[in-house]
Design the sequence.
């Protein structure tokens, strides 16, 4: 029997009654973050974090968007950060996509008629691609930062590199074989979907990324049918561009904000 709502504690021992959260279709509590602008929001942006990390690492991206009147929201995926679930293990990759769509639908219900964008990094890039493929009409655009489009031999082992070791909310264990299999399945699904993609996207990737093969990014850019697609390659930059050298971070934040703002409907229908 699951614990009654009032007694459910996060993996860190905090009652969920004290934390912003949603409850997914499996009855698991997912910790949420909301970055709200000071004014009435012009758009919604859902952020999908990478494997082994949590959504708290996206505050800089969120703040760069809230300054422009955009509401940013995210949750820690099942088994990550302050959410329930077996750490870094999942029966089916589709759970991440289903949960993302649930959270997006909740926010669309609160803010009807606003354009919705997704930003995804690494495994969160895979989640973003497949989420947009499931509901192509629902999204005004997708931003992918070092996305996992295809798996290479290296990316199957060093996902730990992503975890900044000073952050106790990141996962510091090894990668389970079953989890690696789910990532491979996701990559295979993406490969099948690429020729069907028509929604707008912007990919930013470092050419020194050891985790997510930039070859996958080039493949997506070339194979997707989208007429609105952009690619920015950062030379000598690594996997987590939004945590790279300051000048890279500054460029990433500016480019991401600009790309999203350029795709908002103009006010007063002009």
Sequence:
């Amino acid at each position: 029997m699951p614990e009654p709502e009032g007694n459910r504690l996060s993996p860190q021992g905090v009652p969920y009654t004290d934390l912003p959260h949603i409850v997914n279709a499996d009855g698991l509590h997912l910790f949420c973050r909301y970055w709200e602008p000071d004014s009435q929001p012009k758009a919604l942006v859902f952020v999908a974090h990478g494997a082994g990390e949590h959504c708290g690492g996206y505050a800089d991206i969120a703040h760069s968007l809230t300054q422009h009147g955009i509401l940013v929201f995210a949750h820690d995926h099942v088994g990550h950060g302050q959410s329930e679930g077996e750490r870094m293990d999942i029966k089916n990759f589709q759970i991440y996509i289903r949960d993302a769509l649930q959270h997006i639908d909740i926010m669309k219900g609160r803010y009807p008629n606003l354009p919705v964008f997704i930003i995804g990094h690494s495994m969160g890039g895979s989640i973003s691609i497949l989420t947009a493929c499931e509901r192509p009409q629902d999204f005004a655009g997708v931003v992918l930062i070092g996305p996992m489009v295809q798996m290479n031999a290296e990316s199957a082992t060093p996902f730990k590199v992503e975890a900044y070791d000073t952050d106790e909310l990141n996962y510091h264990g090894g990668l389970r074989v079953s989890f690696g299999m789910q990532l491979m399945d996701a990559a295979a699904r993406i490969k099948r979907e690429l020729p069907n993609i028509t929604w707008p996207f912007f990919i930013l990737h470092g050419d020194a990324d050891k985790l997510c093969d930039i070859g996958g990014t080039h493949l997506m850019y070339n194979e997707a049918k989208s007429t609105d697609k952009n690619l920015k390659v950062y030379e000598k930059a690594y996997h987590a561009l939004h945590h790279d050298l300051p000048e890279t971070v500054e460029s990433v934040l500016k480019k991401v904000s600009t790309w999203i703002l350029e795709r908002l409907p103009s006010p007063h229908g002009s």
Summary: The two ends are 56 Å apart (CA to CA). Strands lie at 21-23, 29-35, 43-48, 70-75, 116-121, 141-145, 201-206, 229-234. The chain has six helices and eight strands.
